[in-house]
Amino acid sequence: TGDLQVVDAWQILRSEAKPGRSVLVIDWRCDWIGPGIAERLVRDGHQVQLAVNGTHCGESLPLYVRDQLAGELHRLGIPITPYARLYGCDDNTVYLQHTASGEPMIFEGIDTLVLCQGHQPEDRLATELAGLVEVRRIGDCLAPRTAEEAIHDGLTVAWAL
């Protein structure tokens, strides 16, 4: 038994956390963040499992991206659990709920839980510029967005100018 380390994707990307041997990556959005983190951690020598809150990994990605990603994860031997919603964790156990059946899914012997749960809005710059120039917020400063959504936001603002 031990203390489960809980970190987010940014902490992994910035090397702010040192994951343990056995890692469970929880992917809430079914985009490329969870699979990308899982791939990086496997390549760094960790045992990684990926749990996604959808019918399959990369559900929200274009088909050609999703299929290439699925192939790479398979080559790397990363097991993927679909229909998985995070319910809780303690010690070295992570509790998930199957979103279709409602049944528990229990992952034991986990050293590190990596949360890929979306982003927090970041709009400090808009606040600093308030009253100096006209500011229009797009992308993650409004709300958590995908790159595609942020591009759409930018296009919408550009057409309005």
TrEMBL record:
<keyword id="KW-0288">FMN</keyword>
<dbReference type="InterPro" id="IPR036188">
    <property type="entry name" value="FAD/NAD-bd_sf"/>
</dbReference>
<dbReference type="InterPro" id="IPR051793">
    <property type="entry name" value="NADH:flavin_oxidoreductase"/>
</dbReference>
<keyword id="KW-0560">Oxidoreductase</keyword>
<dbReference type="GO" id="GO:0008670">
    <property type="term" value="F:2,4-dienoyl-CoA reductase (NADPH) activity"/>
</dbReference>
<protein>
    <submittedName>
        <fullName>Oxidoreductase</fullName>
    </submittedName>
</protein>
<dbReference type="GO" id="GO:0033543">
    <property type="term" value="P:fatty acid beta-oxidation, unsaturated, even number, reductase/isomerase pathway"/>
</dbReference>
<keyword id="KW-0285">Flavoprotein</keyword>
